[in-house]
Amino acid sequence: MVETKTKNMLYGAAVQLVPKSISQATFNYYNLVQKVPSEELRKNPWYAEPFGPALPPVDDWVCDVGIPAALLLAGAFTKKQTLKDMGLGAALTGAATFVHDVLSRMPAWLKPT
Asked: Domain residues of the chain, as ranges?
């Protein structure tokens, strides 16, 4: 049987991954199916790149960093171990996803300005 802490961490990972997946799928749908250019989609505040093309857009910051932070803060303020465990699970998946997003934009770092 799965231990409660592990189960809560898996719930936290799902809480982080589901919105991230929906956001990514929506962007890809508009870009690939509806043929909306990515430059046009980046004008939407949710998909905007406020720090330039070398760093992830707003949706990645919110889904990968914001959701785990909110869960960890909620766990700390309420002193509920369930929320702390969920925050840990969300942080593990969010950190891995965010690092992947940053590394996949590495060519933008190397372009001369």
From this structure: 4-108
Q: Which residue has the tokens 């231990």?
A: 3
Asked if the model's pLDDT at residue 35 lies above 80, the reply is yes
Give the pLDDT score at 112: 67
Main-chain dihedrals φ then ψ at residue 76, nearest 5 degrees: -70, -40
Does position 94 have pLDDT exceeding 80, yes or no? yes
In the numeric block, which tokens belong to residue 113?
């300005």
State the virtual CA torsion across 82, 11, 68, 73 in degrees, nearest 10.
Answer: -20
- 39-44: average pLDDT: 94
Half-sphere exposure of 76 (CA within 13 A, CB side): 8
pTM: 0.86
